[in-house]
Write a structure and sequence with these properties.
about 120 residues, seven-stranded mixed β-sheet, four-stranded antiparallel β-sheet, 11 strands
Length: about 120
């Protein structure tokens, strides 16, 4: 079982930056693919970025060039650095984890709210 705890959300002005963190329990963190998702009010949850155990990253088109996902296996933590934030980035951001080779996301955090507004 893996527990995920997100932090770092808050209120930021358009054009500003935030860094989200997701701390994971367990000794197998380095073997998991990690992902950040978001869900805006009235919308479906969408995949924002992923990072494999080997460090390969993917991004949604809407955040490419603005967001950066990274991981620190020594700290069992994955990060999402968000720059040039826009009002449409407002959402609850969730961290997810899945074992390498699986397609379904197995574990989820409780989410952290990000609000981009002036």
């Amino acid at each position: 079982q893996v527990q995920l705890v997100e932090s770092g959300g808050g209120l930021v002005q358009p054009g500003g930056s935030l860094t989200l963190s997701c701390a994971a329990s367990g000794s197998l963190f380095s073997t998991y693919t990690m992902g950040w998702f978001r869900q805006a009010p009235g919308k479906q949850r969408e995949l924002v970025a992923t990072i494999t155990s080997g460090g390969t990253t993917t991004y949604a088109e809407s955040v490419k060039g603005r967001f950066t996902i990274s991981r620190d296996n020594a700290r069992n933590t994955v990060y999402l650095r968000m720059n040039s934030l826009k009002p449409e980035d407002t959402a609850v951001y969730y961290c997810g984890a899945r074992r390498t080779g699986l397609h379904s996301w197995e574990y989820w955090g409780q989410g952290t709210q990000v609000t981009v507004s002036s």
